[in-house]
Amino acid sequence: MSLFSDDQIRFDLLRKYSINQWGRYPKDVIPLTAADPDFRAAEEIRRAIANMAVDGVFSYGGDGGNPAFRDACARHVTNRKGFSCSPDEVFATSGVAQAMMLTCKALLKPGDEVILFDPVDFLFGKSIDIAGGRQVLSKVSWETLEFDLEGLKELVTPKTKMICICNPHNPYGRVLRRDELKAMVDLAVDHDLWIMSDEIWSDIVYDGREHIATASIEGASNRTLSLYGFSKTFALAGLQLGFIVAQNPELMAKVKGAAPGYFYPVNNVSQEAGRASLDEAWHWAQGFVRHLQGVRDYVYERLSDMPGVDVRKPEGTYVIFPKIDGMTSIQATKYIMDEAQVAVVPGHGEPFSYFGLGGEGHIRIVYSTSMGIMEEAMDRVEAALSKL
Ligand SMILES: Cc1ncc(COP(=O)(O)O)c(C=O)c1O
Asked: How far is the CA of 159 from the centre of ligand 1 (A)?
């Protein structure tokens, strides 16, 4: 029995606590929508929360994060992300989504242009919009999964202020190569741009690949805000925890200015859970990635064999983004829900686009669950698509 075997899925608890996923659909639906694991968090994390509850002191925390949390984050980045980080370069946030919004708020003025990739998670575009910035899209090829590095230069204007990197890339599951990151950093250096590097998925990489942190690339550290989280690696989405690393004091001052502690405090219980994750539960994360690689292989093979499905093998993340022949994303999502009772996310669609126009025709499937659940889901999807 492993921590990630089928019998570790607690449907009773998921229906009670997984409000946005298992609690949202009728009982016969398999939800593969939110990138939020179905496994219970590591015992070390649960114990840390329980100990704090027993201690019973819930005072105000420190501005920008508590020392124990920021120490753990700095060690984690230095030891596992390939660049050196000190606690005063860490700023705690209530999740990476908030960190993205803060980054845009801190660095953009209304009318500033920001380069981002298409498709990509909607949180990038939303954060830019909220800050009054203008999205400038660079298409990532579905055929080759390559970024248009040459074309990036043509997108730069005097108003361009920032480039956004999502690595590993949600939804294609690409893990960016060093030459790709270098080209993006070089562009930022040449045109004096800030870089928002969302590395929330950086622990979930497969086949022995190395995730390369943007800030470790020459020229990047002074202009990069690196964003890390706990939702994906440690199954802590509902604790709303993340952090920003800013090695440039000027950048850190901008973040602090945009998020004064009295308005942006981060929950102390979450920070203690985050500390325990990084200090004590790394073995859990490693076991989780080993499990996920097996599920990734299985789901990829199954989808590859289905009629009308065009799929690429993710190098990282636990999302897969097949294109369904002859249907819009919305049609495919609805068809699979109606015929297979499997809930997935549409790649694109009005009025809300999850991944931008580049996601049209695709659906996103999340596979951070047990092999048994994915077997059942794949059987149902195959049966539904075979009827077409
Ligand atoms: C690329 C990316 N950034 C940020 C988030 C949100 O992170 P958090 O749960 O820490 O707010 C997600 C969640 O799916 C994501 O995929």
From this structure: 27
